[in-house]
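agent> step 3/5: call structure_predict on target 'Reverse transcriptase domain-containing protein' (Tanacetum cinerariifolium).
agent> reason: downstream docking stage needs a structural representation; sequence fetched in step 2, passing through unchanged.
tool.input:
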Amino acid sequence: VIVDRLTKSAHFLPMREDDSMDKLTKRYLKEVLTRHGIPISIISDRDPMFASNFWRAFQKALGTRLDMSTAYHPYHASIKAAPFEVLYGRKCRSPVCWAEVEDAQLIGPEIIQETTEKIVEIKKRLQAAHDRQKSYADVRRKPLEFQFDDKVMLKVSPWKGVVRFGKRGKLNPRYIGPFKLLAKVGTIAYRLELPQQLSRAHSTFHVCNLKKFTIVYH
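tool.output (status=ok):
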């Protein structure tokens, strides 16, 4: 799934987990670049494909900046407008509201001014939505920090499809570990020392997926 951060328009490209990087690149060129041009930046998860040397070199050659999100901690915002209207600068005419959509007669300078004003307004709405969500999260968030010598448990749910732990469904453990902390990344993430069986996954995790390891004596 590829989503434009400004307009929220999306492309859904059918891909298999074992598809090659060559196939991903061809789909990307055909479905995204030929329609929308070269993006300034791309935010993605830390899938091995997106973190590969080829993908990094390919985007660097295009002049696109790659930003990797913190593992398993996405967020969404609202633009308060239909993606079609934001992307094309007009409402979508459909059988349901055919008469409500008029053909706008705009010349070049007017189109540029109107588009610029819409972009400014959308950015304001995105920032407002982001600030609002952050304020909600700050109220619920409990300050959680670990010391360098601490060991932590890792929440299992993000690992679905990456590795199995012998049991499935309700019998699957909620946390695995303990794992040694290697470093703090920014203010909300930590890098862990993972065993070989988890080598396919990125080792940096948001603090919400960790809890301190404690020994219970009976």
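agent> step 4/5: record observation. The chain has three domains: 1-74, 77-141, 151-212.
agent> proceeding.
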